[in-house]
Amino acid sequence: MSERSRNRFWIGSFFVIVCFFLVSSSCSASEETQKTDGVRTVYLIRHGDYDHDDERDPDLGKALVPLGVAQARIIGARLRGLPVEMSSLHSSTMTRARQTALVIGEEFPGLELQTSRLIRECTPPTWREDVMADETEADLQACTEQLEEAFPLYFAPSPDADRHDIVVCHGNVIRYFVTKVLKVDAMAWLGMSIGNCSLTVVTVDADGSMKLLSYGDVGHLPPNLTTRTAPGQPIDLEVPGESSQERSTSD
């Protein structure tokens, strides 16, 4: 082989090696980009205050009262003020949760509300005997199965980049989910109280590990607009001492 041929051979070999490493690096980079390091953040919202005296089916009745609408608007504004882009909006099919989500959704016109029966209110087993006395074994079992099916759907690792999901549901549901996040006995759920339109935040890392960032936060609501798990004294949203009749006679 001549000197010129040998030079061409080594130069050609050099370029082949370089190309091989470039292609390998490109493939490795492509594989790395396919791996997700995204974090899913779940914003759990309990619905606003509603008509507790309405005896209709909760998918038709038990709508938000004016106080509940006001609570929903305030939590919607708080979520809108966060320095993130919300990815999705979910709610249970019950009227009070669905309406709360619709009010919140006015702050996020690009999100389409997705409803699910899996996050409807129900009563899972608890240590409180007085609560268990009003429940049947079949209902308790059905609630547990429902929530166990729902949890991995809403708390799965993000499939790609960071996600921020709003989930509007119910007090029992959120409290049960929190016991799952913390990996404690699910029977402990009733040891927590939770306010209407409160904010509970959970992060889910790419490896499936979870952190509870906040629970039942009502800091966005003034004290006179805060209501909790059990219905308390009704809150009057009218101007004190001025009824609608007084306003009409003074016009």
Percentage beta strand: 5-15%
Largest sheet: spatial strand order:
3-2-4-1-5-6
> Any idea of the CATH topology?
Rossmann fold
The description of the largest β-sheet is: 6 strands, mixed
Question: Any guess at the CATH architecture?
Answer: 3-Layer(aba) Sandwich
How many helix segments?
7
What structural category arises from helix and sheet content?
A: alpha/beta
Number of structurally distinct domains: 1
Superfamily (CATH H level) name: Phosphoglycerate mutase-like
pLDDT < 50 stretches: 16-23, 25-35, 247-251
Overall geometry comes to globular
Percent in helix = 25-40%
**What's the end-to-end separation, in Å?**
111 Å
> What's the total number of strands?
6
* Rounded Rg: 27 Å
Give the CATH class: Alpha Beta
Could you tell me the mean pLDDT?
86
**String of helices and strands:** HEHEHEHHEHEEH
Give a topology summary.
Blueprint: H1 3-34, E1 40-46, H2 66-80, E2 88-92, H3 95-105, E3 113-116, H4 129-132, H5 137-154, E4 163-169, H6 171-182, E5 199-204, E6 210-217, H7 244-250
Parallel strand pairs: 1-4, 2-3, 2-4
Antiparallel strand pairs: 1-5, 5-6
Helix pairs in contact: 2-3
Main attributes of the structure:
globular; 7 helices; about 40% helix; alpha/beta; about 250 residues; Rossmann fold
Report on the structure:
The chain is α/β, with parallel strands linked by helices and 251 residues long. 39% of the residues lie in helices and 15% in strands. It contains seven helices and six strands, in the order αβαβαβααβαββα. It has a six-stranded mixed sheet with strand order 3-2-4-1-5-6, with helices on both faces. Helix 2 crosses helix 3. The N and C termini lie far apart (111 Å). The C terminus is likely disordered.
